[in-house]
Specification:
The complex is a heterodimer of chains A (98) and B (464).
Chain A (H helix, E strand, L loop, with lengths): L4 H22 L9 H20 L4 H37 L2
Chain B lengths: L1 H7 L6 H30 L5 E9 L2 E8 L2 H12 L6 E8 L7 E6 L3 E8 L2 H14 L4 E8 L7 H12 L2 E9 L2 E8 L4 H9 L7 E8 L4 E7 L4 E8 L2 H14 L4 E8 L7 H13 L1 E9 L2 E8 L2 H14 L5 E8 L8 H14 L16 H13 L5 E6 L6 H21 L7 E5 L12 H7 L1 E6 L1
Parallel strand pairs in B: 2-3, 5-6, 8-9, 11-12, 14-15, 16-17
Antiparallel strand pairs in B: 1-2, 4-5, 4-7, 7-8, 10-11, 10-13, 13-14, 16-18
Helix pairs in contact in B: 2-3, 4-5, 7-8, 8-9, 10-11
Classes of the chains: A mainly alpha (98), B alpha/beta (464).
């Protein structure tokens, strides 16, 4: 997959930026949070998908789509983490100043 | 870090745009990824030898369909594709090229084209054979119907190339290589083509052998025409070599005494076995005809023309058949020349003298056996004797002065007797002939030179 990064690095960067934006907003967002059970469910699905991908059980094009999905999700999550972390850092500095 | 954890519960709203982003990415990148992986796989297979190679990509998976020429080659090809970076799975649909048994390859030439068919062991040898055939048959259409198959005998290429070269010597035909056995049939372009091919086939690689060789060559033709009007004998066609040429020209000179020999013979290989042994007696038979044509075509002798008298025609028919070597056939179409008008004794004597001036009756050395070369002359003497049926003829034998007088005397008598017997066998009445021997008593030339002696060894005809 790494050897083919040429073809989709732009999309990974897009996912990363999307994640960054969502992460940035999520710190101050007041909407509903994912319940613990839903989080476990999402984690379970992710584990199954990763398992399928590593075991190369999904054939042909669907296999490629799965790999690409996981790579984009990973980029998204990294973006979210960076965005959230930076926002916390900014919010923390602003609250210390006055 | 705690904050990061608590905010992660609110990351989910981005999932919807992410899925949309993913769908677009999957849709747009897939063709490029598939094309790239196909190209990389094809490049990885560049140095492997495969037939009917087909690479299909589905996502990051490659389906490799191909026929390999050995198990090692097949595994190497699959491993080469598996090592392509970025590739996820290889669906191995490779198999081995079918094995042919018996291993048959052939080249056929007809009027319009040359066709290569059967099995070739590798694409490279197939190309080499096709190119070799195109070079050997410049200007002729070459069609490749060869299929690839395993199981070729060793040094197959060398053997097949040699056979292609042999095919170039054929006008049409087919050469088939079955395993290590070569079978040939067809018609050679040139007279010596059959022999040239047989010689070249000795250079086949070790282990190869020639089975059926049914190559035919154009007929090996030797012709002789006798024309009494111009007094000429014309020889044309082929003789095996210069020695045979000289022998036949010499025999013609002796047998056709007094006739001019026009020699248009050419030397060529490809003569049938026993050619000289057949040509010499056949020329002897022709020399006994008044007018005639002799054709030797391969092992067939065809003689036609006019004999001087009935008995001669029968003698020729019976004799030639026996004299030919084994395996030769003869076809004789003879008629008998109409008898010439009778003449009186004086003219008869002149005719005898005229004939004997051109040639003398020859005998084997120190014997009374008439040389076969004199048959033509004797036939003419007999024909002349038939024109003066009432004349009595004295046949006189003479020798040269070599040797004992008593022996020469007896020899000359026996030789004169032999000539008379010959004439009686031809149907002339024995009462008309008397034979005398004079030994060396009446020379017509000096006995001190070979030429003089040859003149003195003679048979004279005296009409009484």
């Amino acid at each position: 997959m790494v050897a083919l990064a040429d073809f989709f690095w732009g999309w990974l960067v897009g996912s990363l930026l999307l994640g960054f934006a969502v992460g940035w907003i999520s710190v101050v967002h007041r909407g509903p949070s994912l319940s613990k059970n839903a989080g476990l469910g999402v984690g379970g699905i992710a584990a199954v998908l990763i398992g399928l991908s590593l075991a190369r059980l999904v054939p042909g094009r669907a296999g490629y789509w799965l790999d690409l999905f996981l790579a984009m999700v990973a980029a998204y999550l990294i973006g979210c983490a960076i965005g959230s972390w930076l926002r916390y850092w900014v919010v923390a500095r602003q609250s210390q100043r006055p | 870090m705690r904050g990061l954890y608590s905010s992660s519960g609110k990351w989910w709203p981005g999932a919807i745009p992410l899925v949309i982003l993913w769908a677009v990415a999957a849709w747009t990148t897939m063709p490029a990824v598939e094309a790239e992986l196909s190209a990389r796989s094809a490049a990885a297979l560049k140095d492997t030898i495969l037939d009917k190679t087909k690479i299909t990509a589905a996502g990051r998976d490659i389906t490799l369909t191909a026929e390999a020429f050995s198990e090692e080659g097949r595994r190497a090809a699959v491993s080469a594709v598996e090592a392509v970076p970025g590739l996820r799975l290889v669906n191995d649909r490779t198999k081995l090229v079918p094995e042919a048994s018996p291993y048959v390859w052939s080249i056929e030439r007809d009027v319009v084209r040359v066709t290569l068919s059967g099995s070739a062991p590798l694409p490279a040898s197939r190309t080499r054979l096709f190119d070799g055939a195109k070079a050997a048959f410049a200007g002729v259409e070459v069609v490749d119907h060869m299929a690839l198959a395993r199981g070729a005998p060793q040094r197959f290429d060398a053997a097949a190339m040699l056979l292609i070269d042999q095919m170039a010597k054929l006008k049409q035909g087919k050469i088939t290589l079955t395993g290590t056995k070569v079978a040939l049939k067809g018609m050679a372009k040139d007279l010596g083509g059959r022999e040239a091919i047989a010689a070249a086939l000795r250079n086949l690689p070790d282990g190869y052998s020639v089975g059926d060789n049914e190559i035919e060559a154009p007929p090996y033709v030797f012709r002789a025409y006798k024309d009494p009007v111009s007094g000429q004998v014309t020889l044309d066609g082929y003789v095996p070599d210069n020695a045979v040429h000289a022998a036949l020209a010499g025999a013609t000179g002796r047998k056709f005494f007094g006739d001019k020999v026009i020699d248009n013979l050419k030397a060529s290989v490809g003569a049938p076995k026993g050619f000289v042994d057949a040509a010499v007696p056949a020329l002897g038979a022709l020399s006994r005809l008044s007018t005639g044509t002799l054709v030797l075509s391969d092992r067939e002798v065809h003689l036609s023309g006019d004999a001087f008298y009935d008995v001669a025609a029968n003698q020729i028919r019976g004799g030639l058949n026996k004299e030919l070597p084994q395996g030769w056939t003869v076809k004789i179409d003879l008629s008998v020349k109409p008898q010439a008008a009778p003449v009186d004794a004086t003219v008869c004597q002149q005719l005898f003298n005229g004939l004997l001036a051109k040639g003398t009756v020859q005998f084997d050395s120190a014997s009374a056996t008439i040389d076969k070369d004199s048959a033509g002359l004797l036939d003419r003497l007999i024909e002349t004797a038939m024109r003066c049926p009432n004349a009595k003829i004295e046949v006189a034998g003479h020798t040269d002065s070599d040797g004992d007088n008593a022996f020469n005397q007896t020899l000359s008598e026996r030789r004169a007797r032999a000539v008379v017997d010959y004439m009686v066998r031809a149907g002339l009445s024995p009462e008309r002939f008397q034979s005398f021997g004079y030994g060396s008593k009446i020379p017509v030339a000096e006995n001190d030179t070979e030429a003089g002696k040859a003149k003195n060894r003679r048979i004279d005809f005296v009409v009484r």
